[in-house]
Amino acid sequence: MSDRTPIADRSLSRSWTDDAIRLIEADTRRSADTHLLRYPLPSAWGADVGSALYLKDETTHITGSLKHRLARSLFLYALCNGWIGEGTTVVEASSGSTAISEAYFASLLGLPFIAVVPATTSSSKVALIESQGGRCHFVQNSSEVYAEAERLARETGGHYLDQFTNAERATDWRGNNNIAESIFAQMQDEQYPVPEWIVVGAGTGGTSATIGRYIRYRRHATRLCVVDPENSAFFPSYAEGRDDIVMAASSRIEGIGRPRVEPSFLPDVVDRMVSVPDAASIAAARHVSTVLGRRVGPSTGTNVWGAFGLLAEMAAAGRHGSVVTLLADSGDRYSDSYFSDEWVNEQGFDLTGPARALVEFEQDCTWS
Ligand SMILES: Cc1ncc(COP(=O)(O)O)c(C=O)c1O
Description:
The protein has helices at residues 15-30, 67-80, 97-109, 123-131, 145-156, 163-170, 179-187, 206-217, 234-240, 278-292, 298-316, 341-346, 352-364, and strands at residues 35-39, 52-57, 90-93, 113-118, 135-139, 159-160, 197-201, 223-228, 272-275, 322-327.
């Protein structure tokens, strides 16, 4: 009988991982926090409406959107779990913006990156992924991205980041300068420092999960409202208390709304959901772009549509306070679509009703 103790050793050299984490931490240290903009509500409303609206401007991340935070968290999560090493091909299922940010981090670490994206993804997003050295792999329907990403990761011996499953667990919801901690810190010296409402959309559901958990953890009175576009499973599943709803069509508001209820969407930390018509999201994105003098993406329209409704509700109840929402990405990525009248007409959107509602809101803070 051998007196040797059996040993199984799977340890790889730690030095590549150490250096990868250092590179990401150094990148974070070189970056600044995003701005919290005060949205100019009409001065003509008078003293009865004392509320304030803020936009957390996530366009100022190096890769131009809210997804920069998620991509950093997913890479750190995968590195610290030992799932990514030197030379690992990194694969992701994305509607575009996440892949742009992930392509940036893959390039920072010198790793190959493949984004599985719907064929409808805007050409400027595809160009941004490719300019970071990423490769795009197209599927016809957005519901196909998951299986295709899994298959490619298997075939290449790579790692599927799986934002839709891992977003809620990869982000440190207690703090570590997550988006919620940043919003509450930046609100500190405002007239109403604790927002009545925070309004966000859901793609993975990760942002709403982080904010909802943080609000509870810090015992804030703030409520969380999730706005959802047409053809998304999140709203009907929340309203009906089911998680098995699958939609036949894809969301037409890039970045938010999903055909299935994603594992990262946590309905129990959401206080309210509002279903926003796509024409309203587009009209609101154009309206906000005019007010700010710079183009905002369509999901910012969805966010602001929800925020305006809440401000009007507060005004009708005689309550003053603050509402915070996100400026998730820039409208410059969408000049050929949501900002093109031709494209809007081709898609069959009629913006006249929502545009009228926005004018009425500007006049007297009412919401029909
Ligand atoms: C463009 C865009 N992408 C994504 C999200 C939400 O992202 P997630 O649910 O993946 O955290 C938002 C939220 O407002 C958004 O506007």
